[in-house]
Specification:
Two copies of one chain form a homodimer.
Chain A (H helix, E strand, L loop, with lengths): L2 E4 L6 H16 L5 E5 L5 H9 L6 E2 L8 E4 L16 E6 L13 E4 L5 H12 L5 H15 L9 H14 L3 H11 L8 H6 L3 E5 L2 E10 L3 H4 L2 H15 L3 E8 L4 E8 L2 H8 L9 E3 L5 H14 L1
Parallel strand pairs in A: 1-2, 1-4, 2-3, 4-5, 5-6, 8-9
Antiparallel strand pairs in A: 7-8, 9-10, 10-11
C-alpha cells in the first residue's frame, strides 16, 4: 500500500508544501511508492503559491485507512489524521514541540527548532546531494515565507535567513516581492466566511486538562476584523459549543506592522490576561503587541498560565 | 548551568558511551558547556570497554536539578532522570520507539531505526566533518557491538555492518576479537548478585495500563542461570512487590547461540505465552528460541498481547 505523506489538519502553506517536497525527497531516495496528500484544502495563501508555480494541490484525505504514514510539520495526534492509531508512523519531520506522540516501534525522526518544516527538508536535500528543481525550491520557499512571515516572525532562525535568498534565486523570483504578494493573498478577508476566519488555521492544544483552540488569521489592517467582530465572536461561540472547546482564542495578526489582537470565547479569559499581561478592553479585544507567532509567543505563555 | 547529557537508567554500554560521544560532538560544534553523566554505574561489559580504552566512567547523577538536558539512547520519561519535568530537553538522539515523551517547546531530535545510538552519532560526525579520534571510535564501536551483539541481533542494520569494521580500524582493534571479549566480560554471572541479574539492565514499559518490567542478562551458558533460578525468581518477586510491577520478565540470552530463556513473576504469564507462542515448562522456564533483542523481539509482541 502506498505510504501517505501529510502535514497537519487545517493545513497552512508549510504543511502542504512540506508534504510535496518530502515526497520528492523520498522519490530521490529511491522510495517511489509514496503520495503527498493533505488533511484539508489549501487556503488562499497556499493557493496563490501553488498557482504561481503551477503545482496541483495534494489530494485531500480524511483517513489513512491503515496505510503507513510519514508526518511532516506536526506530530501531535489531535492535529493529525483521525485514524492514525491504525497506521505505522514511518517518519516525522517537524519543527514543533512534541506531545501526544507515541509509536510501537523505532522510527525516523528529524526535528529541529527552526522556522519552517521546509528548512529541515532543504538541509536534508543538501546533505544527500539531491536535486532542488525550481519548482521544489519555490514550494520550500513558500512554506518558509509563510511560517516566518517573510523572516519577520521571532520563529525565524539564521537557517531561514541563509536559505530563503538562495531558494528565491533557484525559483527565479524576487524574495521580497513574491513573499509580500503571497502573504497578502492570504489576507483577503472579503473572500473568507466567519468560519474560515475562526477555524481556517486553528489548532487544538491540551493545557492543564482543558481543550484550548487557537486560530490565527493574517490581515493587512486589523479594522477589517473589528468590522466583523460580532459575527466572528458568534462563530467562536458556536464552534466551542459544537466541539467542546473550553477556550477558543482567535489571534488576528497585522502582517505589515507585526502586531496582533486576540478575540476569545469560553472559560479562562483571565488566563489569557495573565499570560499576556494585558486586559480585554471595552470592545472585548486583547491587544497583543509584537505577537505574530502562535508557536513561540502564544502557546508557551498560555500553557504556563493554564498549568499554574 | 552546564547542560547534562545522559542515556537511560540502568545504563548499558551504548547508553554510557553515547553520552560521551555526543558530548564530544557538542564540543566540536562549539558548545563546550556540556557534561556527559550517567543514571547509573557501568556494568561489567561497559567497564571492560572503558578500561580497555582508558576512559573515565561518567559521573552518576540521580537528578538534573533543573539543568538543561540532552537525552541519548532513550526518550521515555520512566527510563529517564527522575526530575526531568523540571528540565528543558534540548535534544534527543535515539533509536527506540517514542512514548511518554512531551516537551513544551520545539527541540532537536534525531531518531533512526538503526542498531545503536552511536550509529546515529557516527553519521552526524561524518555529516559535519568532525574528527573521530581512536578513543571516540572505540567508544562508538563498543556501544554498537553491545546493542547489536556483534552484528548478530536482528536490530542490526546495514549501517552497523558498514561502520563497525571502519570504527574498529580507527580504534586499532580486531572487531571479532575485541567484540567477543567485551561481550563475554558482561556475562560473568559469578560477579553478579541476584539483583544485578534481574534489575541490572531492566526497563519499565506501560502495556495496556500495566507496568511491565523487562530485564535482560547475557550469558555464555544458560545453565548458569538455571543453577540460580530459585534465587533469581525470589528477586523478581521481591522487586515486583517493592516497586509495584505487574509483571517482571527476565530474558536470559545465550550470546553464543543467539537463544533466550524467560523467567517471570507476576500476573500476565499467559500474555507471555500468547506473545511468544510457547508454554512455561515444568521448571517454569519459557523457551525463546532465536530471541536476542528486547526492543525488536520482546517488547512489540508483548505489547500487542497486553493490548489485545
Amino acid at each position: 500500500m502506498t505510504t501517505l505523506i501529510f502535514g497537519h489538519q487545517n493545513p497552512d502553506t508549510d504543511a502542504i508544501t512540506s508534504a510535496i517536497t518530502w515526497a520528492e525527497f523520498q522519490r530521490q531516495s529511491g522510495n517511489t511508492d509514496v503520495e503527498a496528500v493533505a488533511l484539508g484544502t489549501p487556503n488562499d495563501e497556499t493557493k496563490f503559491a501553488l498557482d504561481t508555480f503551477k503545482t496541483q494541490a495534494p489530494r485531500v484525505i480524511d483517513a489513512a485507512n491503515g496505510a503507513d504514514v510519514m508526518l511532516v510539520d506536526h506530530n501531535e495526534a489531535q492535529q493529525s489524521v483521525a485514524d492514525r492509531k491504525d497506521s505505522t508512523i514511518v517518519s516525522v519531520v517537524d519543527h514543533h514541540r512534541f506531545a501526544n506522540f507515541e509509536t510501537a516501534a523505532p522510527l525516523f525522526i528529524r526535528a529541529e527548532p527552526v522556522g519552517s518544516c521546509n528548512s529541515i527538508i532543504y538541509k536534508m536535500y543538501k546533505e544527500n546531494g539531491f536535486e532542488i528543481t525550481p519548482q521544489i525550491a519555490a514550494l520550500m520557499l513558500s512554506g518558509a515565507i509563510s511560517d516566518t512571515l517573510l523572516l519577520k516572525s521571532p520563529t525565524t532562525t539564521d537557517l531561514e535567513r541563509e536559505i530563503l535568498p538562495e531558494l528565491a534565486k533557484i525559483a527565479g523570483v524576487d524574495l521580497q516581492e513574491y513573499g509580500l504578494n503571497m502573504l497578502k493573498a492570504g489576507t483577503n478577508l472579503a473572500a473568507k466566511s466567519d468560519l474560515d476566519i475562526t477555524e481556517g488555521d486553528a489548532k487544538s492544544f491540551d493545557m492543564g486538562g482543558k481543550t484550548v483552540r487557537i486560530g490565527q488569521v493574517n490581515v493587512v489592517d486589523l479594522e477589517e476584523i473589528y468590522a466583523r467582530q460580532a459575527d466572528i465572536e458568534a462563530s467562536l461561540k458556536a464552534e466551542s459549543e459544537r466541539n467542546g472547546y473550553d477556550l477558543f482564542l482567535l489571534v488576528a495578526t497585522d502582517i505589515l506592522n507585526s502586531n496582533s489582537t486576540g478575540l476569545a470565547f469560553g472559560e479562562g479569559k483571565d488566563k489569557l490576561e495573565a499570560a499576556f499581561g494585558g486586559k480585554f478592553d471595552a470592545d472585548d479585544r486583547l491587544a497583543l503587541p509584537g505577537v505574530v507567532s502562535r508557536k513561540k509567543q502564544v502557546v508557551p505563555p498560555l500553557q504556563k498560565a493554564f498549568e499554574a
